[in-house]
Specification:
The protein is of the alpha+beta class. Helix content is 44%, strand content 16%. Helix 1 runs parallel beside helix 5, helix 5 packs across helix 7 and helix 11 crosses helix 12.
């Protein structure tokens, strides 16, 4: 089996998996194996996701008997790939040659579902009875050096038009990748959400509307009467009179918030907030023509 014999999807998922939760196992002295193999440990709670992933990997990959490892037989392919993912110290590295193959959203999605999280920063304004949620994408790749993370950061920006930044950590090589702007988080989630739509067990990471509804429910129970909204610099950008008129006109026509956001070139949540604000203030714009 050769890497270029694999489909593009198989290449992207395999490369992301080796950088993420998986590893290419070494051939130890005295072993009867002629080649390296693949191994990926996971908990039973993640079985649905691993089944989803297995269906995208080469057909020779399989679960072990206890369904706690996703593995492969020893393959010449993995022996060939080993030096592209590990240095002489055994540390994982990022290969530019491998990254050239990673053009599919499946690469970003697999990397995120393996080693990422949708984290939410929370701030509360008790005077306004408002809770602000700020979502961030974290890619916990502290097993990679800062230099290698910068290669990955550039690739994500160039290939997927999403800006991620390095952020300090106390473990591993001391850095991870994360989004620092809500708009970049939403772009990231749009990419991975579309690709993983058939993996509902991961919606808490990939589907913002699903996750937001969970957060709203949680805070309504602990802070009854508070409004929960997404914090964003775009939320504070003033709407022109013309934009308010168009927003309300499209609402009366029964257009969705997504359609209005696309028409106004505004973030989805910005439209949601503005409509709520106009209704709350009984704005003249919401009156029929």
């Amino acid at each position: 089996m050769d890497l270029h014999v694999l489909t593009s999807d198989e290449q992207n998922v395999l490369i992301a998996s080796i950088l993420g939760d998986g590893e290419i196992t070494k051939r130890y002295p005295g072993s009867r194996r002629k080649n390296n193999s693949y191994r990926e440990h996971f908990s039973i709670q993640q079985l649905d996701y691993r089944i989803w992933k297995l269906n995208l990997l080469p057909p020779t990959f399989y679960f072990n008997k206890s369904c706690s490892f996703l593995v492969s037989p020893s393959l010449p392919l993995l022996t060939q790939m080993f030096n592209h993912f590990y240095n002489s110290n055994g540390d994982k590295i990022v290969s530019l040659e491998m990254l050239k193959l990673c053009k599919s959203p499946l690469f970003l999605t697999t990397l995120f579902l393996d080693d990422g999280s949708l984290s939410i920063s929370v701030s509360k304004n008790h005077l306004k009875k408002t809770i602000y949620l700020t979502p961030h994408i974290h890619l916990y790749l502290q097993c990679l050096s800062l230099e290698d993370l910068c290669k990955l950061k550039l690739h994500i920006h160039t290939q997927f038009s999403v800006e991620v930044n390095t952020s300090k950590r106390s473990d591993g090589f001391g850095y991870i990748l994360k989004t620092t702007k809500v708009c970049e988080t939403m772009k990231f989630l749009k990419i991975v959400g579309e690709v993983s739509r058939d993996c509902p067990s991961m919606y808490h990471k990939t589907d913002w509307e699903f996750r937001f509804s969970q957060e709203v429910k949680r805070y309504q129970e602990s802070y009854p009467g508070y409004e929960v909204i997404v914090s964003s610099s775009d939320r504070k950008k003033n709407y022109t009179e013309e934009e308010c008129e168009v927003l309300c006109k499209m609402k009366r026509e029964g257009r969705t918030d997504k359609e209005i956001a696309a028409h106004l070139n505004r973030p989805y949540w910005s439209v949601v907030y503005k409509w709520a604000e106009l209704r709350k203030n009984n704005s003249e714009y919401i009156l029929p023509d």
